[in-house]
Protein backbone atom coordinates (compact mmCIF):
# COMPACT_ATOMS: atom_id res chain seq x y z
CA UNK A 1 0.00 0.00 0.00
CA UNK A 2 1.64 3.23 -1.09
CA UNK A 3 1.28 6.44 0.87
CA UNK A 4 0.27 9.77 -0.58
CA UNK A 5 2.42 12.87 -0.83
CA UNK A 6 5.00 14.23 1.57
CA UNK A 7 3.21 15.40 4.76
CA UNK A 8 4.26 18.98 4.06
CA UNK A 9 2.67 18.81 0.63
CA UNK A 10 -0.53 17.42 2.13
CA UNK A 11 -0.64 20.22 4.70
CA UNK A 12 -0.25 22.80 1.94
CA UNK A 13 -2.95 21.11 -0.11
CA UNK A 14 -5.40 20.95 2.79
CA UNK A 15 -4.81 24.60 3.64
CA UNK A 16 -6.16 25.55 0.21
CA UNK A 17 -9.45 23.68 0.65
CA UNK A 18 -12.68 25.44 1.60
CA UNK A 19 -13.76 22.45 3.67
CA UNK A 20 -10.62 22.80 5.80
CA UNK A 21 -10.82 26.57 6.36
CA UNK A 22 -10.62 27.94 9.90
CA UNK A 23 -13.39 30.23 11.14
CA UNK A 24 -12.04 32.57 13.82
CA UNK A 25 -15.54 33.82 14.65
CA UNK A 26 -16.27 30.39 16.11
CA UNK A 27 -13.14 30.21 18.26
CA UNK A 28 -15.19 30.64 21.44
CA UNK A 29 -17.88 28.08 20.56
CA UNK A 30 -16.90 25.85 23.48
CA UNK A 31 -17.86 28.64 25.90
CA UNK A 32 -21.38 29.02 24.58
CA UNK A 33 -24.52 27.51 26.15
CA UNK A 34 -25.52 24.18 24.64
CA UNK A 35 -28.70 25.59 23.12
CA UNK A 36 -26.74 28.33 21.35
CA UNK A 37 -24.27 25.79 19.91
CA UNK A 38 -27.24 23.72 18.71
CA UNK A 39 -28.74 26.82 17.04
CA UNK A 40 -25.42 27.58 15.34
CA UNK A 41 -25.09 24.02 14.10
CA UNK A 42 -28.66 23.90 12.88
CA UNK A 43 -28.14 27.16 11.01
CA UNK A 44 -25.05 25.73 9.34
CA UNK A 45 -26.93 22.59 8.29
CA UNK A 46 -29.74 24.68 6.81
CA UNK A 47 -27.35 26.04 4.17
CA UNK A 48 -26.61 22.62 2.69
CA UNK A 49 -29.75 22.10 0.55
CA UNK A 50 -29.11 25.42 -1.22
CA UNK A 51 -25.57 24.30 -2.07
CA UNK A 52 -26.95 21.04 -3.47
CA UNK A 53 -29.59 22.96 -5.46
CA UNK A 54 -26.84 24.84 -7.30
CA UNK A 55 -25.56 21.53 -8.67
CA UNK A 56 -28.88 20.00 -9.72
CA UNK A 57 -28.18 20.18 -13.49
CA UNK A 58 -24.94 18.22 -13.02
CA UNK A 59 -26.66 15.76 -10.69
CA UNK A 60 -29.52 15.18 -13.16
CA UNK A 61 -27.10 14.63 -16.05
CA UNK A 62 -25.18 12.06 -14.00
CA UNK A 63 -28.39 10.26 -13.02
CA UNK A 64 -29.56 9.95 -16.64
CA UNK A 65 -26.17 8.52 -17.60
CA UNK A 66 -26.21 6.06 -14.68
CA UNK A 67 -29.75 4.91 -15.46
CA UNK A 68 -28.82 4.32 -19.10
CA UNK A 69 -25.92 2.07 -18.09
CA UNK A 70 -27.92 0.21 -15.45
CA UNK A 71 -30.74 -0.41 -17.93
CA UNK A 72 -28.14 -2.34 -19.95
CA UNK A 73 -27.24 -4.46 -16.95
CA UNK A 74 -24.52 -2.30 -15.45
CA UNK A 75 -23.81 -1.78 -11.78
CA UNK A 76 -23.64 1.32 -9.60
CA UNK A 77 -20.43 1.28 -7.56
CA UNK A 78 -19.54 3.81 -4.87
CA UNK A 79 -15.92 4.28 -3.79
CA UNK A 80 -14.70 6.45 -0.94
CA UNK A 81 -12.78 6.58 2.30
CA UNK A 82 -13.84 7.43 5.84
CA UNK A 83 -17.19 9.19 6.13
CA UNK A 84 -17.55 9.39 2.35
CA UNK A 85 -16.99 5.65 1.98
CA UNK A 86 -19.42 4.86 4.79
CA UNK A 87 -22.10 6.98 3.13
CA UNK A 88 -21.60 5.05 -0.11
CA UNK A 89 -21.86 1.70 1.65
CA UNK A 90 -24.99 2.91 3.47
CA UNK A 91 -26.68 3.99 0.25
CA UNK A 92 -25.78 0.74 -1.49
CA UNK A 93 -27.03 -1.38 1.42
CA UNK A 94 -30.44 0.30 1.35
CA UNK A 95 -31.11 -0.50 -2.32
CA UNK A 96 -31.97 -4.24 -2.03
CA UNK A 97 -34.76 -3.85 0.57
CA UNK A 98 -36.09 -0.63 -0.98
CA UNK A 99 -35.89 -1.47 -4.67
CA UNK A 100 -35.25 -5.24 -4.80
CA UNK A 101 -31.96 -4.67 -6.59
CA UNK A 102 -30.09 -7.85 -7.39
CA UNK A 103 -27.08 -8.84 -5.24
CA UNK A 104 -24.10 -6.83 -6.44
CA UNK A 105 -26.17 -4.44 -8.55
CA UNK A 106 -25.36 -1.52 -6.24
CA UNK A 107 -22.00 -1.82 -4.47
CA UNK A 108 -20.29 0.27 -1.81
CA UNK A 109 -16.49 0.15 -1.62
CA UNK A 110 -14.72 1.73 1.34
CA UNK A 111 -10.96 2.12 1.60
CA UNK A 112 -9.73 -0.58 3.96
CA UNK A 113 -12.68 -2.91 3.42
CA UNK A 114 -15.58 -3.77 5.76
CA UNK A 115 -13.51 -3.17 8.91
CA UNK A 116 -13.22 0.49 7.91
CA UNK A 117 -16.97 0.92 8.45
CA UNK A 118 -16.40 1.03 12.20
CA UNK A 119 -12.71 1.80 12.65
CA UNK A 120 -9.93 3.68 10.91
CA UNK A 121 -7.70 1.59 8.64
CA UNK A 122 -4.26 3.18 8.58
CA UNK A 123 -3.21 4.57 5.22
CA UNK A 124 -6.08 3.04 3.24
CA UNK A 125 -7.42 6.34 1.92
CA UNK A 126 -3.98 7.27 0.61
CA UNK A 127 -3.71 4.31 -1.76
CA UNK A 128 -4.77 4.54 -5.40
CA UNK A 129 -3.56 0.96 -5.84
CA UNK A 130 -5.99 -0.29 -3.21
CA UNK A 131 -8.87 1.30 -5.13
CA UNK A 132 -7.68 -0.30 -8.36
CA UNK A 133 -7.48 -3.71 -6.70
CA UNK A 134 -10.96 -3.35 -5.19
CA UNK A 135 -12.44 -2.50 -8.60
CA UNK A 136 -10.45 -5.19 -10.40
CA UNK A 137 -11.99 -7.76 -8.03
CA UNK A 138 -15.42 -6.73 -9.35
CA UNK A 139 -14.50 -7.44 -13.00
CA UNK A 140 -15.50 -3.93 -14.00
CA UNK A 141 -17.23 -3.51 -17.37
CA UNK A 142 -18.04 -0.56 -19.63
CA UNK A 143 -21.69 -0.75 -18.51
CA UNK A 144 -20.77 -0.08 -14.88
CA UNK A 145 -20.69 3.28 -13.12
CA UNK A 146 -18.12 4.21 -10.49
CA UNK A 147 -18.94 7.14 -8.20
CA UNK A 148 -15.93 8.48 -6.34
CA UNK A 149 -16.89 10.28 -3.11
CA UNK A 150 -14.55 12.63 -1.27
CA UNK A 151 -15.31 15.82 0.64
CA UNK A 152 -11.88 17.25 -0.11
CA UNK A 153 -11.94 16.02 -3.69
CA UNK A 154 -8.31 14.94 -3.34
CA UNK A 155 -8.51 11.57 -1.54
CA UNK A 156 -6.21 9.22 -3.48
CA UNK A 157 -8.52 6.20 -3.02
CA UNK A 158 -11.51 8.01 -4.58
CA UNK A 159 -9.49 9.73 -7.32
CA UNK A 160 -7.69 6.47 -8.10
CA UNK A 161 -10.97 4.56 -8.36
CA UNK A 162 -12.45 7.05 -10.82
CA UNK A 163 -9.26 7.32 -12.89
CA UNK A 164 -8.88 3.54 -13.18
CA UNK A 165 -12.55 2.99 -13.98
CA UNK A 166 -12.68 5.71 -16.64
CA UNK A 167 -9.63 4.27 -18.38
CA UNK A 168 -11.60 1.04 -18.77
CA UNK A 169 -14.65 2.66 -20.29
CA UNK A 170 -16.89 2.72 -17.21
CA UNK A 171 -19.04 5.75 -16.53
CA UNK A 172 -17.50 7.86 -13.77
CA UNK A 173 -18.92 10.42 -11.36
CA UNK A 174 -16.84 12.49 -8.94
CA UNK A 175 -18.67 13.90 -5.90
CA UNK A 176 -16.75 16.41 -3.81
CA UNK A 177 -17.31 19.52 -1.69
CA UNK A 178 -14.53 21.75 -3.02
CA UNK A 179 -14.40 23.66 -6.29
CA UNK A 180 -11.74 22.73 -8.82
CA UNK A 181 -11.19 19.31 -7.26
CA UNK A 182 -8.97 16.60 -8.69
CA UNK A 183 -11.84 14.13 -8.26
CA UNK A 184 -14.30 16.11 -10.39
CA UNK A 185 -11.62 16.66 -13.02
CA UNK A 186 -10.88 12.93 -13.19
CA UNK A 187 -14.54 11.97 -13.67
CA UNK A 188 -16.79 12.23 -16.70
CA UNK A 189 -19.43 13.82 -14.47
CA UNK A 190 -18.03 16.12 -11.80
CA UNK A 191 -20.37 17.24 -9.00
CA UNK A 192 -18.90 19.80 -6.61
CA UNK A 193 -21.25 20.81 -3.79
CA UNK A 194 -19.42 23.66 -2.06
CA UNK A 195 -20.79 23.90 1.47
CA UNK A 196 -18.04 26.10 2.90
CA UNK A 197 -15.99 25.74 6.09
CA UNK A 198 -17.27 23.44 8.80
CA UNK A 199 -18.45 24.38 12.29
CA UNK A 200 -15.51 22.33 13.60
CA UNK A 201 -12.50 23.01 11.41
CA UNK A 202 -12.01 20.20 8.91
CA UNK A 203 -14.78 17.95 10.32
CA UNK A 204 -16.25 17.01 6.96
CA UNK A 205 -18.66 14.50 8.48
CA UNK A 206 -20.80 17.59 9.15
CA UNK A 207 -22.01 19.81 6.27
CA UNK A 208 -19.95 18.00 3.65
CA UNK A 209 -21.24 14.65 4.85
CA UNK A 210 -24.82 15.92 4.81
CA UNK A 211 -24.37 17.23 1.27
CA UNK A 212 -22.93 13.93 0.07
CA UNK A 213 -25.83 12.02 1.67
CA UNK A 214 -28.36 14.26 -0.10
CA UNK A 215 -26.68 13.77 -3.47
CA UNK A 216 -26.35 9.99 -3.02
CA UNK A 217 -30.05 9.86 -2.09
CA UNK A 218 -30.78 11.51 -5.44
CA UNK A 219 -28.40 9.33 -7.44
CA UNK A 220 -29.83 6.04 -6.24
CA UNK A 221 -33.49 7.04 -5.80
CA UNK A 222 -33.98 8.87 -9.08
CA UNK A 223 -32.00 6.23 -10.97
CA UNK A 224 -34.37 3.60 -9.57
CA UNK A 225 -37.36 5.74 -10.59
CA UNK A 226 -35.94 5.91 -14.11
CA UNK A 227 -35.51 2.11 -14.08
CA UNK A 228 -39.19 1.55 -13.22
CA UNK A 229 -38.60 0.59 -9.60
CA UNK A 230 -41.47 2.83 -8.52
CA UNK A 231 -45.06 3.50 -9.59
CA UNK A 232 -45.66 7.16 -8.99
CA UNK A 233 -44.11 7.70 -5.57
CA UNK A 234 -44.84 4.15 -4.40
CA UNK A 235 -42.01 1.65 -3.78
CA UNK A 236 -43.52 -1.15 -5.82
CA UNK A 237 -40.27 -3.13 -5.87
CA UNK A 238 -39.98 -3.22 -2.09
CA UNK A 239 -38.72 -6.57 -0.81
CA UNK A 240 -41.05 -7.85 1.92
CA UNK A 241 -38.41 -9.50 4.09
CA UNK A 242 -39.97 -8.76 7.50
CA UNK A 243 -43.31 -7.98 9.12
CA UNK A 244 -42.97 -4.22 8.66
CA UNK A 245 -42.19 -4.56 4.96
CA UNK A 246 -45.01 -7.08 4.45
CA UNK A 247 -47.39 -4.54 5.98
CA UNK A 248 -45.89 -1.84 3.77
CA UNK A 249 -46.36 -4.03 0.68
CA UNK A 250 -50.02 -4.47 1.54
CA UNK A 251 -50.44 -0.73 2.01
CA UNK A 252 -48.69 0.05 -1.29
CA UNK A 253 -51.04 -2.28 -3.16
CA UNK A 254 -54.00 -0.67 -1.40
CA UNK A 255 -52.86 2.83 -2.35
CA UNK A 256 -52.25 1.83 -5.97
CA UNK A 257 -55.50 -0.10 -6.47
CA UNK A 258 -58.03 0.88 -3.80
CA UNK A 259 -58.83 -2.84 -3.42
CA UNK A 260 -60.22 -4.42 -0.25
CA UNK A 261 -57.91 -6.15 2.21
CA UNK A 262 -59.04 -9.67 1.29
CA UNK A 263 -58.45 -9.08 -2.42
CA UNK A 264 -55.02 -7.61 -1.70
CA UNK A 265 -53.98 -10.56 0.44
CA UNK A 266 -55.16 -12.96 -2.25
CA UNK A 267 -53.25 -11.09 -4.96
CA UNK A 268 -50.06 -10.96 -2.90
CA UNK A 269 -50.34 -14.66 -2.10
CA UNK A 270 -50.72 -15.46 -5.81
CA UNK A 271 -47.64 -13.39 -6.70
CA UNK A 272 -45.40 -14.66 -3.86
CA UNK A 273 -45.63 -11.31 -2.12
CA UNK A 274 -44.45 -9.28 -5.09
CA UNK A 275 -46.14 -5.91 -5.24
CA UNK A 276 -45.94 -5.09 -8.96
CA UNK A 277 -47.70 -8.19 -10.29
CA UNK A 278 -50.22 -8.01 -7.44
CA UNK A 279 -51.17 -4.49 -8.54
CA UNK A 280 -51.31 -5.60 -12.15
CA UNK A 281 -53.67 -8.49 -11.38
CA UNK A 282 -55.97 -6.28 -9.35
CA UNK A 283 -56.11 -3.42 -11.87
CA UNK A 284 -56.41 -5.52 -15.04
CA UNK A 285 -57.92 -8.84 -13.97
CA UNK A 286 -55.09 -10.90 -15.48
CA UNK A 287 -53.71 -13.86 -13.55
CA UNK A 288 -50.33 -13.88 -11.81
CA UNK A 289 -48.51 -15.67 -14.64
CA UNK A 290 -49.80 -13.20 -17.22
CA UNK A 291 -48.86 -10.30 -14.95
CA UNK A 292 -45.31 -11.63 -14.67
CA UNK A 293 -45.10 -11.97 -18.46
CA UNK A 294 -46.39 -8.42 -19.02
CA UNK A 295 -43.86 -7.03 -16.56
CA UNK A 296 -41.02 -8.92 -18.20
CA UNK A 297 -41.98 -7.52 -21.60
CA UNK A 298 -42.10 -4.02 -20.06
CA UNK A 299 -38.61 -4.42 -18.51
CA UNK A 300 -40.20 -4.18 -15.09
CA UNK A 301 -41.99 -0.87 -15.65
CA UNK A 302 -45.42 -1.26 -14.06
CA UNK A 303 -46.96 1.71 -15.86
CA UNK A 304 -45.91 0.31 -19.24
CA UNK A 305 -47.24 -3.12 -18.31
CA UNK A 306 -50.59 -1.60 -17.34
CA UNK A 307 -50.76 0.20 -20.68
CA UNK A 308 -49.94 -3.04 -22.52
CA UNK A 309 -52.76 -4.77 -20.65
CA UNK A 310 -55.15 -2.06 -21.76
CA UNK A 311 -55.81 -0.62 -18.31
From TrEMBL:
It catalyses: N-acetyl-D-muramate 6-phosphate + H2O = N-acetyl-D-glucosamine 6-phosphate + (R)-lactate. It is an enzyme of class 4 (lyase). The keyword Lyase applies. Pathway: Amino-sugar metabolism; N-acetylmuramate degradation. It comes from the Bacteria. Residues 66-229 form the SIS domain. Keywords: Carbohydrate metabolism, Lyase. PROSITE patterns: GCKR (PS01272), SIS (PS51464). The active site is at 94 (proton donor), 125. The keyword Repressor does not apply. Gene3D superfamilies: 1.10.8.1080, Glucose-6-phosphate isomerase like protein, domain 1. Its EC number is 4.2.1.126. A lyase-type mechanism (elimination/hydration) is suggested for the cleavage of the lactyl ether bond of MurNAc 6-phosphate, with the formation of an alpha,beta-unsaturated aldehyde intermediate with (E)-stereochemistry, followed by the syn addition of water to give product. HAMAP family: MurQ (MF_00068). Belongs to the GCKR-like family. MurNAc-6-P etherase subfamily. Homodimer. Specifically catalyzes the cleavage of the D-lactyl ether substituent of MurNAc 6-phosphate, producing GlcNAc 6-phosphate and D-lactate. This is N-acetylmuramic acid 6-phosphate etherase. It comes from Streptomyces thermocarboxydovorans.
Amino acid sequence: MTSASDPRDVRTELASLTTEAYRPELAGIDRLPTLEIARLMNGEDATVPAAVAERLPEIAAAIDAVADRMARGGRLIYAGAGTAGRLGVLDASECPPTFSTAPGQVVGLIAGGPDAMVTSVEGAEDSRELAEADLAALDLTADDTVVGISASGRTPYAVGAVTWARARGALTVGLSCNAGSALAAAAEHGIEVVVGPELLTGSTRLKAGTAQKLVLNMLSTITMIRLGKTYGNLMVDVRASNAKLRARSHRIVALATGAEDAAIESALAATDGEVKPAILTLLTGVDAATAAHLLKDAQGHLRAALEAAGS
